[in-house]
Design a protein that fits this description.
Jelly Rolls, 3 helices, 24 strands, 6% helix
Length: 280
């Protein structure tokens, strides 16, 4: 079963008047990773679609939500980035099967008509997380293992942000139209991500936090640097980040998160940074 929820964003001036419930309703996606279904959220922020597929009883086929997408098939005008955070599985794209181990990624080209998700085991199903943006041309569907991703070590234990950034789809790696996507892993004893904070006027972003146990959480910061709001994030929840908002967080323990960006500039380093003194 495929479900699609449509979300509309807001401006920074309206954000200051919102309750916790209103902020979560607009920006937090807490319906992901339901077994045997493909829940999705369509956002007016760069027309992103964020979703997941956890095939347990049988395989799942990604189909267009024709009312919202007005497309014959999902990637008629779109590209998709997928990362598997669960057990082994496969993604079959137009008859070609790609084996997806834990933390493997797959870029799916615009024009791919049939996309099928499957798990190798019902006891340890695959957990496919995906983000999609509109695409203006086709790039080849490409499989990327965690070992093949571009790795960058940043931070330190002294500042509680010792982490590795794994880039899957980016300008120096697998090519795409808009999509830039990767996975960041914090070392034990580190809790902070994306500090000092930044925005990027030229693209929006989606964070999906995972590897959190039931008693752990991440305090995600959003909003303008001079007027931040916090959101409590649990395991396997995603948060939408508009172009005017910072996106940073601190956890009660180390964790991982998948970040995906879409917009007019794919250069990862294109950021508008702020000093710690500017945060309020």
């Amino acid at each position: 079963m495929v479900t699609m929820e449509v979300r509309f964003s807001t401006d920074p001036n309206s954000l200051r008047h919102m309750s916790t419930e209103e902020v979560r309703k607009l920006f937090v996606i807490d319906t992901l990773f339901a077994p045997d279904t493909i829940p999705m959220v369509y956002s007016d922020i760069d027309r992103s679609i964020t979703g997941s597929a956890v095939p347990v009883k049988s395989s799942l086929q990604l189909q267009s939500s024709k009312k919202e997408m007005a497309a014959e098939y999902f990637t008629e005008r779109r590209e998709i980035g997928v990362i598997n955070i669960g057990g082994k599985g496969t993604i079959t794209v137009d008859g070609t099967s790609y084996s997806m181990a834990h933390k493997d990624g797959l870029y799916i080209s615009r024009g791919s008509r049939e996309i099928i998700f499957a798990s190798a085991s019902k006891e340890q199903p695959a957990k496919f997380y995906f983000v999609s943006y509109p695409a203006h041309r086709e790039y080849p569907t490409t499989h990327v293992t965690i070992e093949q991703a571009e790795h960058e070590h940043l931070g330190s234990l002294a500042t509680a942000n010792d982490r590795v950034i794994n880039r899957y789809f980016h300008v120096r790696g697998v090519k795409s139209c808009q999509l830039v996507m990767g996975l960041t892993e914090l070392a034990e004893g580190s809790v902070w991500n994306t500090m000092p904070p930044h925005t990027h006027q030229r693209r929006s972003e989606v964070y999906m936090y995972f590897n959190l146990d039931p008693d752990s959480l991440v305090v995600h910061l959003m909003g303008k640097p001079s007027e931040t709001k916090h959101i409590i994030m649990r395991n396997e929840q995603a948060v939408l980040s508009p172009i005017w908002s910072i996106h940073a967080g601190a956890g009660t323990k180390n964790y991982s998160f998948i970040w995906a960006m879409g917009g007019e500039n794919q250069v990862f380093e294109d950021m508008d940074g702020f000093s710690m003194k500017e945060l309020l």
